[in-house]
Amino acid sequence: MALIVQKFGGTSVGDAERLKNVALRIAATYRDDNAVVVAVSAMGRTTDDLIELAKDVTTSSHPREMDMLLTAGERISMALLAMALDDLGVPAVSFTGSQAGILTTAVHGEAEIVDIRADRVKDAIDEGRVVIVAGFQGVDPLSRDVTTLGRGGSDATAVALAAALGADVCEIYTDVDGVFTADPRVVSDAQKLVEISFEEMLEMASAGTGVLMARSVEFGRRYSIPIHVRSSFHDGEGTWVKEKTMEEAIVRGVAHDSSEAKVTIQGLADTPGIAAKVFEPLAIAGVTVDLIVQNVSTEGYTDISFTVPKHQLAKARESSESIVADLGAGGVDVDENIAKVSIVGAGMKTELGIAAKMFRILSDSDINIGMISTSPIRISCIVALDRIEDAVRALHNGFKPALAPQEESL
Ligand code: ASP
Ligand code: MG
């Protein structure tokens, strides 16, 4: 008997009909002589709707109550799913994150799972039940307050549960067929990947590929849990995220992200310690900084630019303005019309000239590069927001021969 963790995203449980279909799929897995634990997201746009509702009620921030509100979304789908399974003759029980023993840090809205005390889940499995766990949530053991794990957090719930239970596989059911070589909405001939390594998937997820939450991939890697990303609408194979892939690709895929903005602090004295004085207050303010570029210094002064998530722009601007005041710098400039395009592939480690080729392809499309950042297996460029789709298409096309062969011919 295998232990399978299945996660169903919001679209997969978008209405009563889809929810019942999900129940049928879970029932089939269960009847195949598997133990099944399910992590479920809120139905459809529920989370967004609840956020909007809160905005209609208040303009100030209420992190604790916001988490109380948002966790209600997953509570609805978990209970309905347990009922639907029961109707199919499959014994099922639903648990909130807290009841499932998912312990987190205290940061409302962006808590991290620190431990899972899965006794209650294990007992229910031993009783022969399918266990439905509300995704995206946990509890801070110190305050005993309910927390949420950040948008898309049900993926993290699923993989963390799989790790805690020693599951054989974690299946992520979603509204797309798997992970693609680029966003298929942008690149019409993007291919579904048969497999991708944890390290590549981590880079793709951090670079904007929305199929899997980056933190869930980290769990998968840390505890060696293979993740199968697949469609909830048919039975076809999806993409396997695992330790090692059969084929090494120079470029596994092209990712893009339009959710960041660029902040530039101008006229900083170019002296030792200046970067620390800029980024320490930003870190304290909880701003997640991604790319950083320090410009060439002229006459002892320099500019530092960095990118931040657009949803953190207000706090980034506020701390940048006080940094400018504290350091007697020139000023702050914000550019929201940027986007990031990245190429990712483990084969890049040993292949020369990939960055040069990327820049050449962008140049041939007359796309200006604003900032560059690299890891051993990723190269990212910041370009103008209105050119991002052109950049993705040009890079996908230009690197097509370097992509690993897929089952379907390229
Ligand atoms: N319902 C949450 C969200 O919309 C969590 C998830 O779907 O994974 O972000
Ligand atoms: Mg999701």
Task: Please explain how this structure is put together.
The structure is a single chain. With 410 residues, the chain is an alpha/beta fold. It has three domains: 2-246, Carbamate kinase, CATH 3.40.1160; 260-335, Alpha-Beta Plaits; 338-401, 2-Layer Sandwich (VC0802-like), CATH 3.30.2130. The protein has eleven helices and 20 strands. It has an eight-stranded mixed sheet, with helices on both faces. β7 and β8 form a beta hairpin. α6 (198-206) runs antiparallel to α7 and α8 (274-284) runs antiparallel to α9. The two termini are 38 Å apart. The mean pLDDT is 95. The structure holds aspartic acid and magnesium ion.
What strand line-up does the widest sheet have?
3-6-2-1-9-11-12-10
CATH-level-2 architecture of the largest domain: 3-Layer(aba) Sandwich
CATH superfamily of the largest domain: Acetylglutamate kinase-like
Radius of gyration: 23 Å
**Biggest β-sheet strands, sense, barrel:** 8 strands, mixed
Strand content: 25-35%
Annotated CATH topology of the largest domain:
Carbamate kinase
Mean pLDDT: 95
Query: Count of helices?
Result: 11
Could you tell me the number of beta strands? 20
Q: Considering DSSP H and I runs of 4 or more, what fraction of the residues is helical?
A: 25-40%
Distinct small-molecule ligands in the complex: aspartic acid, magnesium ion
Broad structural category = alpha/beta
The shape, in one word, is: globular
